[in-house]
Amino acid sequence: MDLVQRLKQKVTTEPPPVDITENLETLQFESALTEEEKTILHLRFRSHALTVTACAQATYFTVVLNEARQLRRQIKSPQKKTAKILQDREPKDQVKVGILGCGRLGSQLAHCLLTYGGVRPKDLKVSTRRPETLEYLQSKGVDCFYDNIKLITTSHIVYLCVLPSQIPSIAEELKHNIPPTVIFYSLVSTYTTKKLKQLLLTSNIIHPEFTWRDDSHTNTWDCTLNVNAALENPDTVEMTCPIGYKKSESIICTNEKFAEQMLFALMNWCTQLQLTKVETLEVIHSVLFQDLMEDKFREEDFIKRTDNLVGMFPRFDLVKVFQVKTPVQRKLVEDEHLRKTFVQKYLSVFDTYIKQRAQALLSGIADN
Q1: DSSP H helices in 201-256
Q2: What three-state secondary structure class fits 298?
Q3: Cβ atoms within 10 A of the Cβ of 8, count?
């Protein structure tokens, strides 16, 4: 943050622009509303908070998968360990991301992945009924088309951003063509993972469960910012973390089980990458918990311990993980060190981009 403050000091050569409408009530959004409409104004804040939270969590998970994929190269190539593969400017074999449905939520997610998620345009595909409306994404190099089967068969993870009414027909189209390794990340609020499992015939599904309190609309939330701008604020980012310390300050609350579901999805990802149990735990601790040295997860936290250290973890049913209580969830939430490092990693995903942008701007100022 010191770097960002320095940047602000250097570039602020003129007084900041003033919003001349700030104190003019007749020019505010609320001024055109009737008294009845004002009673549901809180829905505007809730909708914005839902979008920001969903995009932040999806971006974090994409970063985690990509880092695991890069770390796998390091583990399987010991002679390259000193090269710090995770810090390569141009990581190889990156995660292929698909977005199914690109309305308001899907397009916001795409922008967020490109900005904060480190996803290259060539590694992002979008399937939507009207790809011709996505000129901006196409100009960036994103492949936009209308072919759902093509999307799921060429992606490692697919974000479902369609309307609830479209799910039955999409599931019928896809269910016999789904690769066993693809992860479905559903942002369709009205469909539980259990129902999606029945429709898609796969258990490799994760889905954040959002709730809110009746009085949550009294919490402060700026709904005038777009998603990328909102996530420049570290406090906002932490509010979106499933086990963050500032969840109570947000309008939206995510079920803490979702953090565990992401962890198990990452374990399945490691198994798919042919990593042993020891290697999988190494990746988990490195990617999710920043190489913590204590309070680590052990094999027996996930399965009955065996003497076969070179074997792999079984593939976990992610739908069942969300439905039952596990030692992993208890440890993740109650162990303060684990929880703290998880939150720190979550925050760093967005802080890294902000610092990189600040450094680039500072370099430009220095050159001038």
Answers
A1: 227-230, 234-240
A2: coil
A3: 11
